[in-house]
């Protein structure tokens, strides 16, 4: 009997499909602009909150508007964190569903690594934070602050310093950020809901069910006119958001639920219908600019404003275990958790890192994942509350950790970017002129 040749080891972070690379590239370009706006909004907030006109900033942030009988008399800062951020999480849910239904991650072998890495990038920072704040019963409430990655901020940095990095790394970062943001929002739902009103929570399921029914049948009712469907879906989404807010569960959860309720069409290449773009693609195209260009920057403006209190206040925040825990957890815990989990999964599955990549590239991506800005600021407010000293110190830690992680990741990935720039010309060759680079057809 002839010897059977050994089965080749699976490739870790191999090149995905060309269509997926193009789609991810389009998402990254949009998120890059949003990331720059986010950083600008946060910088304005910090400067204003520590200027002689700081009273005006906090007066605007704390100005209340709304209707109390519906539990909606909220400050502008709360409207931004509970309302506008729901748009961001709607896209998180939409993107995650697209990845697992129609993207390269629809294959379990490709999905398990970034999902496991995201879990490692959540658990290790949380453990580090708890270890540092173990003797502080008040500070330990912020254990979930360093668990999330800011998609827009991290992608903006990656676009500036890593324009020639392989698409597999970009897809890995985007998937990683989406998954651990979903984990973070799940943590918010479970651990940061103090009191639940059952009736609004049950009623919340009704508009969600109608929303899902209309979303899946909109072609039958409206043909290809998604705009007509949205006239029904938008009010249903607002009602669902209001009911979940009234139930006591953080209202941004509604965004994720509604994102998952939108149907995703599989591509014709994978056996799906050839009926044009689905509702998920249409919504993503329309709402990503609103999220990246308005919702997230406005939230950052209201959330990042922290009165440091001069040099003395700054130095006092640096010795607070809350600040130290956040910085260490994000800057060290994130890359350790991500890289160690990825390495462990590679050993377990006997997968080899793709020949075009090196483990040092994953360290750079792990450092980028330490930019925990948007969701971290949200969790800090939920952990300590506005006006609490530890909340202010937590914000200082988040800002410092995000900047430090960005600087360290940039220093590492810039050198790697030079290497990949030299081989990019070969990857762009299209000898048969079919519009798809040859490297995707080998």
UniProtKB/TrEMBL annotation:
GO terms for biological process: regulation of pH. It is a multi-pass membrane protein. It is found in: Cell inner membrane; Cell membrane. Gene3D superfamilies: Na+/H+ antiporter like domain (1.20.1530.10). InterPro entries: Na/H_antiporter_dom_sf, NhaA. One of its GO terms (molecular function) is sodium:proton antiporter activity. GO terms for cellular component: plasma membrane. The keyword Cytoplasm does not apply. Keywords: Antiport, Cell membrane, Ion transport, Membrane, Sodium, Sodium transport, Transmembrane, Transmembrane helix, Transport. The chain crosses the membrane at residues 33-51, 76-96, 108-131, 143-161, 168-192, 198-214, 221-243, 249-269, 290-311, 323-346, 358-384, 396-414. It catalyses: Na(+)(in) + 2 H(+)(out) = Na(+)(out) + 2 H(+)(in). Its main location: membrane. HAMAP family: NhaA. Belongs to the NhaA Na(+)/H(+) (TC 2.A.33) antiporter family. NCBIfam families: NhaA (TIGR00773). Na(+)/H(+) antiporter that extrudes sodium in exchange for external protons. This is Na(+)/H(+) antiporter NhaA. The lineage of its organism: Bacteria, Bacillati, Actinomycetota, Actinomycetes, Micrococcales.
